[in-house]
Every structure is written in structure tokens, then in C-alpha cells.
């Protein structure tokens, strides 16, 4: 009898050890927490994006933790500063993956940074969720652990070309873009849509991110008699190019993408950027937005961080909400496979800001490829086209 009891006890202990070992094989997940990481710019040239974006994500996680977590697990969120540099991103990623043992990473900052880190990250089965870049490589080519949030630079410029040619009758399209991974991604969308519509660029110029004098480039495009200029630019070079165009009295329309969709562009003194249009994956909502959920978000952000949320904060909050939805749908028995299945079951997710509905599936890793068209009016971004557009 004693032998039987001892044998049963031994079997139970062995079973418990196997169960514990099985639970431990899910990196970053215990019975009480989920570890999530981010590397982003907290002190470099894109600090306004990195800090506000990660702050809003932390706020969303704090809110869900205050409600008891996700299936009883609280989120532990770790953010590392990459200073918008590739070497720092690799260092930060190594820490998050190998020391902090994160389950997944969200909103990693920068196109070249993500491209450099992702091969090792994905090889270690760490999902890359909603990077803080609109580059197409964040979701394409397909990988089961790569998820993009909304329309990419590529999508935005394809939709812009289609809109300008088909609905506005533009015939002499030109482009100015950064000679970087970002700028080339923008131009890939321009070229692919032009090829699909049998249209050719009349002229184009490429510049370094540090260039400041655009007078010669603008003169070249004016000589080409462009009737619209597509911009693969961010904030500083957008403002400088628009100023150079207006300085010579040229009233040509200009169309940018979400990297230029910033208050610092709309609010240039003297109304320099008045009339500039921009394709954007989501709309920035101001302090006067009356929707209760938006008001609650803005109030909570101000109370927590002592400043108004910017566009990057809004994107971060939406990304966190989609992630929370995926984790919730994964169920209590959280694993890599159940998480992927949970994300793939999301249909027509609507954030609080009125972004295009986001849907994922077995072969769908981008929530939406629809884009809004915004225009600068009286120092603010306003809707230029009522509904989101695509191609």
C-alpha cells in the first residue's frame, strides 16, 4: 500500500514538473503577467514620436492592468531607448529578448532599425507588432509574426496617385523625396501605381535628410511644368520644400504622406504650408473633439504625463488597444500559436479616433490599407476628402 501511495505521489510530482516545464516554455508569460517590450527613440531626433507613442501604450496597459489584466495576467511593459540609431536598436533588442525574455515587442521605432533587428527577433519567435513606421516591410513579405497597424507609405502614395489622376485630372506628376529607405519606400508606391495606370513621372529629385537648400530642385520641377508634386519627406524637409516653392510664387499643389502629417508642418508661421495635402493612415483629433472616449483619453494622458497627446500618442493608444484585443481573443491558455490565432480572428476593429476599420486573418498582416486625405487650413490639419481612399 505504501509503495502504491509513493508511486502515485511520484507520478503526480513528475506530472506537475512536466506541466510547470510546459508553462515555462512560453517566453514572457507566467500565470500572473505578460512581458512586452519596445525599443524606441527617447532622446534622439524623433523623440517627440518615441516618447509620446510609448507613453500612450503604457497608459493603455496601465488601464487594462487596473481592470485586472488580461485573463488575470497583468502586462509588464519595458521600454528601451534606441536614440533612433540602428546599433542602439540591436543592443536594446538583445536585452529585451535575451534578458527580459519578452513575449512580444510593440511599436519598435524606425524603418532601418526594424529591418536590422527583425531577422533575429523573428527567428527567436518574438512577434513584431505595429512598428512605429509605415514602411511596407513591417508586414510584407508575409511572416506569421509580423503585424502592421494601418496603411503604409506605399499604400498612401498609390492611393494619392490614383486620386490625383482619376479624380483631379493631374497629368504632369513630379516627386521630391529623401534618398533613404523611407523615401524609396514612398517612391515604390508612386511608381507602382503610375505603372498600373500607364502614367510616367515628368521629373523627380532626391535629397539627403540633412539637405537644407531646395532652390535648384524646385527650379528643376518648375521647368518640367509639374501640375502636382508628390513628397517623400518628413517634417523639416517638408517645411523647407514648401517654403522654397512658395518663395518663387509657384502655386503648385503638393501631396505628402503620414510622415509629414505633423502639427509642426501645419503650424508653420505665416501660413507657409497652407493648402498642403497629406495622406494619412489615421486622423489626428484635436482637443475640441467632443467624443467621450477621445475626451477621456486626452484627459487621462494630460493627467499622467503633464502634456497634451500628439499624433504619435494617438497611434500608440490605438496600437495598444488592437494588441489587447488580440491577447484577449487568445484566451487564458496563452501561447505563441493562440496569440497568432487571436490576432487572426480580429474583424473590423474600430479605435476611438475613427480610423479605418482594422481586420486581420490567416494571410492578412496589415489592419487596413485605406488612407485619409488631410489638408492644412488656418494652421490645422482638416479633412480634404470625407471618406478614406484606397487603390
Supply the key terms.
single chain; 391 residues; alpha/beta; Rossmann fold; 2 domains; seven-stranded mixed beta sheet; 12 helices; globular; Peripla_BP_I; signal; Leu-bd; Branched-chain amino acid ABC transporter substrate-binding protein
How does this structure look, described?
With 391 residues, this protein is α/β, with parallel strands linked by helices. It folds into 2 domains: 33-151 and 288-360, 3-Layer(aba) Sandwich (Rossmann fold); 153-280 and 373-389, Response regulator (Rossmann fold, 3-Layer(aba) Sandwich), CATH 3.40.50. The protein is built from 12 helices and 12 strands. It has helices spanning 2-24, 47-66, 86-99, 111-123, 153-167, 181-196, 215-223, 236-247, 263-266, 292-305, 311-330, 336-344, and strands at residues 33-40, 74-81, 104-106, 128-129, 146-147, 173-178, 203-207, 228-232, 254-256, 277-280, 371-377, 380-389. The strands form 2 sheets. A 7-stranded mixed beta sheet has the order 7-6-8-9-10-11-12, sandwiched between helices. A 5-stranded parallel beta sheet has the order 2-1-3-4-5, with helices on both faces. α9 links the parallel β9 (254-256) and β10 (277-280). α2 runs parallel beside α11, α5 (153-167) packs parallel to α6 and α11 (311-330) packs across α12 (336-344).
Amino acid at each position: 500500500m505504501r509503495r502504491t501511495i509513493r508511486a502515485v505521489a511520484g507520478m503526480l510530482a513528475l506530472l506537475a514538473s512536466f506541466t510547470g516545464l510546459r508553462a515555462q516554455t512560453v517566453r514572457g508569460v507566467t500565470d500572473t503577467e505578460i512581458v512586452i517590450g519596445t525599443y524606441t527613440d527617447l532622446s534622439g531626433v524623433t523623440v517627440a514620436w518615441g516618447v509620446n507613442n510609448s507613453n500612450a501604450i503604457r497608459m493603455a496597459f496601465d488601464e487594462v492592468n487596473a481592470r485586472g489584466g488580461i485573463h488575470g495576467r497583468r502586462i509588464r511593459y519595458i521600454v528601451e531607448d534606441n536614440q533612433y540609431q540602428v546599433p542602439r536598436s540591436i543592443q536594446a533588442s538583445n536585452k529585451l529578448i535575451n534578458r527580459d525574455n519578452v513575449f512580444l515587442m510593440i511599436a519598435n521605432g524606425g524603418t532601418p532599425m526594424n529591418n536590422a533587428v527583425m531577422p533575429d527577433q523573428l527567428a527567436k519567435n518574438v512577434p513584431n507588432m505595429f512598428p512605429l513606421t509605415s514602411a511596407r516591410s513591417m508586414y510584407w513579405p508575409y511572416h506569421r509574426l509580423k503585424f502592421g497597424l494601418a496603411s503604409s507609405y506605399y499604400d498612401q502614395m498609390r492611393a494619392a496617385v490614383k486620386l490625383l489622376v482619376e479624380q483631379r485630372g493631374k497629368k504632369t506628376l513630379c516627386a521630391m523625396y529623401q534618398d533613404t529607405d523611407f523615401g524609396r519606400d514612398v517612391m515604390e508606391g508612386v511608381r507602382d501605381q503610375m505603372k498600373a495606370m500607364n502614367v510616367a513621372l515628368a521629373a523627380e529629385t532626391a535629397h539627403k535628410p540633412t539637405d537644407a537648400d531646395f532652390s535648384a530642385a524646385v527650379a528643376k520641377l518648375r521647368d518640367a511644368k509639374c501640375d502636382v508634386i508628390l513628397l517623400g519627406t518628413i517634417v523639416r524637409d517638408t517645411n523647407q520644400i514648401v517654403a522654397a516653392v512658395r518663395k518663387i510664387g509657384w502655386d503648385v499643389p503638393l501631396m505628402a504622406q503620414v510622415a509629414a502629417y505633423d502639427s509642426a508642418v501645419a503650424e508653420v508661421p505665416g501660413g507657409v504650408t497652407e493648402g498642403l495635402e497629406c495622406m494619412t493612415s489615421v486622423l489626428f483629433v484635436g482637443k475640441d473633439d467632443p467624443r467621450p472616449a477621445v475626451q477621456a483619453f486626452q484627459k487621462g494622458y494630460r493627467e499622467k504625463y503633464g502634456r497634451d497627446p500628439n499624433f504619435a500618442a494617438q497611434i500608440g493608444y490605438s496600437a495598444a488597444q488592437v494588441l489587447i484585443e488580440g491577447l484577449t481573443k487568445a484566451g487564458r491558455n496563452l501561447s505563441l500559436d493562440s496569440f497568432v490565432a487571436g490576432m487572426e480572428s480580429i474583424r473590423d476593429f474600430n479605435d476611438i479616433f475613427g480610423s479605418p476599420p482594422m481586420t486581420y486573418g490567416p494571410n492578412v498582416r496589415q489592419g487596413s490599407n485605406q488612407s485619409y486625405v488631410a489638408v492644412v487650413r488656418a494652421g490645422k490639419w482638416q479633412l480634404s476628402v470625407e471618406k478614406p481612399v484606397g487603390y
